[in-house]
Write a structure and sequence with these properties.
The protein is an alpha/beta fold. The chain is 39% helix and 18% strand. The protein has 21 helices and 16 strands. It has an eight-stranded parallel β-barrel with strand order 3-4-5-6-7-8-9-10, surrounded by eight helices. A hairpin with a 5-residue loop joins strand 1 and strand 2. The longest helix has 25 residues. The radius of gyration is 29 Å and the shape is globular.
């Protein structure tokens, strides 16, 4: 009988035949058991897998790849029964608000993870405005903040819990807490006033986090999970548990941690892609694996959280939903740390537009008309504009759903098709997200308060009588400068008035500039210092009219010295001007970002006027006021001579 060497062609053919037989056997086993292997499974030289899930020296023959496949984690020789059913048991919140328990729940973390984006910090009053809008949008859960982070954050969460958490058809109000008693207790007190409070606690489970950040062993993490979830459960019925950096964790260990959390009382298990590392197929495979291996998973909701570092966050979420996730953790406009989070508007509209496809994934008839989420899509555009205004984080024009170009067409071929039938080039009607055309009543300088209020009602903008009065005054001022006021102008006016100015020390009263190609730019600025109750004026020169105005403001409210701003205290990081509408009389919208050199925090200011120099100066003053509120150790003072002269008057 002839012998074949390992490197002979005959031996290679034999190995190929064995691989084919093995693959066919695996496929037939999968079909019989109902178990669908992960698409990440590949055939390669085998490795011995230890009990800890790590690979040792290669073995002869072939096996499944040990890296991130579902089968790699199923070390036992017996095949599991497959993923357990998705939990569709209605919660107390579902029953009280009449929400469909089979929907995909929307967990909004704009006020927590979104606000962590550099320069996106908001005051307590601004957070309340966003929370009210999120409730109107129809989100299921509002993660209002991280109560232990600061007294201001605790107060913001507590206020939202009292007001938004007790309105008609309220969302769940959630607070974030590390897996420590102090964090959990502070969170419990902050959210306690809400009708439906939730504690969201977390601990890292990836080897790199446990070794370098936590300095804990796997057994210690399991023990902490059990103790802290139980502690959270002693305060509230609704507890969410997250395994930080889950997508880089060992899947077998991950299932054990989640099983412990379920036994300790967790009602939602969040699977976070903390660093935006995963892919859609991998996320789906992990969710399916967890549904198969977590003890008690059929009685809890699986949630997903993810960042957009590789640009796949939304795709990852939609694949996770296919795998059985029924809660998505998102932010308005996708804001968040680094490259941001999965965008609420993109995930929601993806599920809406492709409803026929996702219906079957959720066990519904393909032609079912039931909504897949509880989101009021008419409020999407309004929510996006509000968050942009309050955070100063602009939306890129070509961003899906809420970008300025999302429903714009310039190509002649496209325009021809649009005129004949919008469906030729638009899969979403702009009105679906609340972006309506500027038709109907034309607003101008002759329009009265009734017409103005009517347009606000059409745009679903709710203002108190005081807010309406302020906005109407701004409207009349703008109408004297423009022939026609558009909806975008009105949104800009309302957003300007929405900024929290209750703590502003300096108020801009007047600005005048002189400039030209043969002259030195000079600006004269008048400020009101509400703390000193004085109104003073100063002038300064600069490289241009805006720079001169900024220098004049620096002289009037210098942070050190004789009225001159000190470069080692405040640094101008960004200055941007955009046009709200088209035309020579367009409203200019200015955003300014200042960095506090001491803390590294960035503060923004925003204003809109037909005069960009006035808007720039007002935005600069507003940013400076926000910085001063946070830096209590800074005591800016007016130029001594000017202050004395003002008081003498």
């Amino acid at each position: 009988m002839p012998r074949f060497h390992n490197n002979s062609p005959s031996m290679g053919a034999t190995r190929a035949a064995l691989v084919a037989v093995f693959a066919a056997t695996l496929a037939s086993t999968a079909a019989f058991s109902g178990f669908a292997p992960s698409p990440l499974i590949s055939l390669r030289p085998a490795s011995r897998t230890t009990a800890a899930g790590r690979s040792s020296a290669p073995l002869a023959g072939f096996s499944l790849s040990p890296r991130r496949s579902a089968l790699r984690q199923t070390a036992p020789t017996t095949m599991m029964a497959g993923p357990k059913p998705v939990c569709v048991v209605p919660t107390a919140h579902d029953l009280a608000t009449g929400r469909d328990p089979t929907r995909v729940k929307v967990f909004d973390t704009t006020l927590r993870d979104g606000e962590q984006s550099p320069g996106c910090s908001m005051t307590s009053e601004e957070k309340m405005q966003v929370a009210k809008q999120l409730a109107k949008l129809g989100v299921d859960v509002i993660e209002a903040g991280f109560p232990i982070a600061s007294n201001d954050d605790w107060a913001a969460v507590n206020n939202i819990a009292q007001v938004v958490g007790n309105q008609e058809n309220p969302p769940i109000i959630c607070g974030l807490a590390r897996a420590t008693k102090g964090d959990i207790e502070a969170c419990a007190k902050a959210i306690q006033p809400a009708a439906f409070p939730r504690i969201h606690t977390f601990i890292a489970t990836s080897d790199i986090h446990m070794e370098h950040k936590l300095k804990k062993t796997r057994d210690e993490v399991l023990a902490i999970t059990e103790e802290m979830v139980s502690h959270a459960k002693s305060f509230v019925d609704d507890v969410e548990f997250s395994a930080e950096d889950a997508l880089r964790s060992d899947w077998d260990f991950l299932a054990k941690v989640y099983s412990v959390a379920v036994k300790a009382g967790a009602t939602t298990l969040n699977v976070p892609d903390t660093v935006g590392y995963t892919t859609p197929a991998e996320f789906k495979a992990l969710v399916e694996y967890l549904r198969e291996h977590i003890e008690g998973v059929e009685g809890v909701t699986i949630s997903v959280h993810g960042h957009n570092d590789l640009g796949m966050a939304v795709s990852n979420f939609l694949s996770a939903v296919e795998g059985g996730a029924r809660q998505v953790e998102v932010t308005i406009n996708g804001i968040g740390e680094r490259a941001g989070n999965a965008a609420l508007e993109e995930v929601v509209m993806g599920l809406f537009v492709r409803k026929n496809y996702y219906n079957e994934k959720l066990g519904r008839p393909a032609d079912s008309e039931k909504e897949l989420t509880n989101i009021n899509k008419k409020e999407i555009h309004r929510s996006s504009k509000l968050v942009t205004a309050l955070t100063g984080m602009p939306v890129q024009p070509n961003k899906a759903i809420v970008g300025a170009n999302a429903f714009a067409h310039e190509s002649g071929i496209h325009q021809d098709g649009m005129l004949k039938n919008k469906l030729t080039y638009e899969i979403v009607d702009a009105s679906t997200i609340g972006l309506d055309n500027n038709d109907g009543i034309v607003l101008g300088k002759h329009s009265g308060r009734a017409a103005f209020r009517s347009r606000l009602d059409e745009m679903s903008i709710d203002l108190t009588d005081d807010e309406l009065n302020k906005a109407f005054v701004r409207f009349k001022e703008l109408a004297d400068k423009k022939k026609e006021i558009t909806n975008m102008d009105i949104e800009s006016i309302v957003n300007d008035e929405a900024q929290d100015t209750t703590l502003d020390r300096f108020k801009l009263k007047h600005v005048q500039v002189q400039c030209g190609d043969k002259s030195i730019a000079t600006a004269t600025v008048t400020l009101m210092d509400t703390k000193e109750d004085v109104e003073v004026t100063d002038a300064a020169t600069g490289t241009g009219p805006v720079d001169a105005a900024f220098q004049a403001v620096n002289r009037l409210c210098g942070l050190s010295g004789a009225g001159q701003a000190c470069a080692d205290q405040v640094k101008l990081m960004e200055y941007s001007v955009t046009s709200v509408t088209a035309g020579i009389d367009a409203l200019g919208e200015v955003t300014v970002r200042l960095m506090d050199v001491k803390s590294g925090r960035v503060y923004y200011g925003r204003s809109s006027e037909t005069d960009v120099v006035v808007a720039s100066t007002a935005a600069y003053v507003h940013a400076l006021n926000r910085l001063l509120v946070q830096r209590q150790d800074l005591q800016p003072k007016l130029h001594p001579q000017m202050a004395m002269a003002a008081k003498a008057v």
